[in-house]
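ok so heres the complex, two chains, lmk if somethin looks off
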Amino acid sequence: MKTLKILFLALSLLGFLDASYLAIKYYQGEAPTCAFFKGCDVVTTSEYATIFGISIALLGAIYYLSLLILSIIYLDTKNPRLIKIGTVIAGGGFLFSLWLIYLQIFVLNALCIYCVASALSSTSLFIIGMILWKKSSY
Amino acid sequence: MEENQKITKQEKRLLRREERSLEQIQVARKRLFRKITMWTGIFAGLGLTLYLMILFVNRPLPETKLTTEISANDHIKGNPAALTTLVEYSDFQCPACASYFPLVKKLLEENDDAIRFVYRHFPLPQHKNARLAASVAEAAGLQNKFWEMHDLIFENQFRWENLSNAKASEEFTKYATQLGLNLPKFTTDLDSEELKTRVEADYLSGNASGVNSTPTFFLNGKKMLQPRDYENFKNIVLGA
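and the predicted structre for the whole thing:
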């Protein structure tokens, strides 16, 4: 139980750092180029990298930050409702990640390692959230 | 006497209650203080990490120099005697290169007297038609149509970038026909080892100069920061 909760916190932190790195790159990085190992250049400069002009990486960073804050509050207060809220948010992130991975594989034909890492962490967060939810409802 | 004792008992009780509530207030204060410290620490830590990441992304890159001098083998456009030399390492299948192509073209059209422009191949391994496209441009070059082919290849990138090697070859042959090239010679040249070596030589010279992405521009032998737009590009190049 405790390990899973710490893991949830650690994954949200990793996801936050990962997404922040992409967001910083997006807003401050150089003009797009093609580099060895295609992937992030194709993906992060594609038309799918933004929603209504906001970088998806930035939205991702906010999403992970909210999960991070939520899990710290949970570890502090032990309020079981927070598990449910966190799992619902993680579920949304998981579905969104599925969509992004679909776009990378089938539309852009390029995988960005940072985006894959984010999809993996949001999937794990969702799974851990569900386990914690189930355990806490006994 | 009894009355007095009663009062003192009541007073004691009150006093005790007061002490207890004071203790509670102190405990609550401590808890609040602990929370404030915790959250301040967390946000300070996250802020510091973000700051370090921003510094990392914007770190100045080591200055890289062009190691291979311009020679008669190079494809030169503009004024060969110009004081400003712009070398581009480029990949015909790279979308970023295709988006810089009109910028370079405009820059040369507007300032063809001031710039000596050199195009070198840097076909990235993940672009499966890039090497072929480079050879096609070289084969056209043997019939003095390198730049015409270079333009056609970039302008039509979207047509051939996702084709198989064989299909892309057919597409390129169309451009050769369009340029009025001698087709049998073009086809033979395209298969020659000499052309492949020529493209590879450019690629190796790029490697030696620290090129790891395309397009990479060298302005008078020094690696240039990627220009953001045409005005930026023009100012940097003409300012040199």
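quick notes: The radius of gyration of chain A is 16 Å. thats all i got rn
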